[in-house]
Write the structure tokens for this entry.
Amino acid sequence: MPPGQYLTEDFPVLSAGPTPNIPLDRWEFVIASEDGREYRWTWDELLELPAEEPTVDIHCVTKWSKLETTWRGVSLDVLMEDVETTADFALAHSYGGYTTNLPLEDLLDGKAWIVYEFEGSELAPQHGGPARLLVPHLYFWKSAKWVRGIQLQEFDELGFWESVGYHDYGDPWREQRYQGD
Amino acid sequence: MSARIEWRVATLAEFRNETATARTLLLDVPGWPGHLAGQHVDVRLTDADGYSTQRSYSLGAPADGERVELTVQKVPGGEVSEYLTDVYSIGDPIELRGPVGGWFVWHPSRTAPVLLVAGGSGIVPLMAMVRARRQARSRAPFRLIYSVRSPADQYFSSELRRSAVDDSGLDVTTVYTRSAPPGATREPGRIGGADLERYGWPPQFEPTCFVCGPTGFVEKVANTLVGLGHDPRRIRTERFGPTGG
């Protein structure tokens, strides 16, 4: 367990505002590169991509950790396959306006997914459904709920929690909870 | 890069029992930098063997110099909350780090109408906003809707009753979910759209809404406010998970 965390069997919810209602026929996921090119997937197109079923531990900055959670979704490596970029940073954004920033390398090489199932069932809205980002090696706020797209950019731009005092990177093993940690 | 938020040693100066299972702790924290209403702190306990554990608690009042106030609800089996409500005594040290959180906050300079909706122990950060308003002599229009199971579960009850007189422009409504006091006009029951319409603000007034409580409560209240026409961007939420401790 990372320092300062405790185990929970429940799945608590952390979010800053109301849960958005996102009709699947209007859902889309967009990766935008730094030169303005956009790569889009509809809901049906996402489901047609090869899926993986990662089993991972998750760590929330509010101190709970949950071990061996199982998810189903598409690896960012698959989504990024045809994307041409030299960007170093990514800003994930969500339906409802939430954003979070990560180095692009933290989304690649089997470290991140766009997931739409949790423990064998469709992902519930309060947990980020229809689809959320899953980046389990960072504190769980980086795993943006209700994900809508990823903006690739050459500079690091702070996301929502990062701009109100939470850490820029958020490595639970180094206990990077707040700015300055 | 900002300076690291350091751990500080806090000692218990006073306490008040709010209910049979909740205790308010008044802590002296040398060097406390001050905070905004709605922010929280991390508390760390370490035992003689070096085992340590952390939890987050909302601050219940504006800073009074180096004195801060937390209210802790005892969670059955919760190693930290059971210690803080049953064992922790006057003069004892704990470690504390904060303040944390810059989103679920109310600034006394704001004049827009505010709706506070609390479920159970979710009253704590909202009480900090009520008290910050009083301290700043703000006249921002405030409405507080406080949902509790029964009168015995109410925190800050005498202060909130007094508020009707002392806090001009603050309306307080308590909604009882299981049992209401004698003479109550509303039947006990969960908070619903009718309560939020009657005791809250119309969406046209564009209030900032702060909703705090257990996940199911926050989910329902926030969704109902959106359904009544409130802009989701003006609804700020803070949830207490089913675990904690």
Chain A has two helices and eleven strands. The two ends of chain A are 18 Å apart (CA to CA). Residues 58 and 66 of chain A are 5 Å apart (CA to CA). Residues 6-10+33-157 of chain A form a domain with the Sulfite Oxidase; Chain A, domain 2 fold (CATH 3.90.420.10).
